[in-house]
Amino acid sequence: MAESFVVNENDFEYRFGDSGPKYLMKGPRMNFALVQFQPGQDFQAHYHNVMEENFFVLEGQVDVVVDGVVHSLKEGDLIHVGPGEVHYVKNAYDKPVKMVSTLAPYQEVDKVEVENPVY
User: Which domain of life does the protein's organism represent (predicted)?
Assistant: First the structure.
């Protein structure tokens, strides 16, 4: 049974218009998304019980706070976030940021929101 397929990012939309995730693939074993944030934008801090998440920065800069530790990432950086680690992403810079996000193993619902950190 063939599973291969091809999609183009232009056929998908970011969740919040010009920002948030744009899922090019959801399941059956992992999620693959492009994520974009405009200057000043962020998303609600959360963790996953089962899934691990990776962010790879394609363009721009971004702050990723993992369990209270601030990681300032730039183009070419990858951060791995394990299950149970609270993570918060904020574009504290003056240009948009674009990243790849992968989540695995796929779970339809595996997100627990928590209070955003102040840093």
Answer: Bacteria
Distance of alpha carbon 69 from alpha carbon 119, whole angstroms: 9
What is the C-alpha to C-alpha distance for residues 34 and 99, in angstroms, rounded to an integer? 6
Q: Are 65 and 117 in contact (CB under 8 A)?
A: yes
What distance in Å separates the CA atoms of residue 63 and residue 73, rounded to the nearest whole number? 6
Q: What is the pTM of this model?
A: 0.94
Full set of structural domains in the chain with CATH: 19-106 (2.60.120.10)
Q: What is the pLDDT of residue 1?
A: 66
- How far is Cα 63 from Cα 89, in angstroms, rounded to an integer? 6
pLDDT tens, residue by residue, 55-92 = 999 999 999 999 999 999 999 999 999 999 999 999 99
pLDDT value of position 70: 98
Handedness of CA 34, 60, 19, 102 (dihedral sign): positive
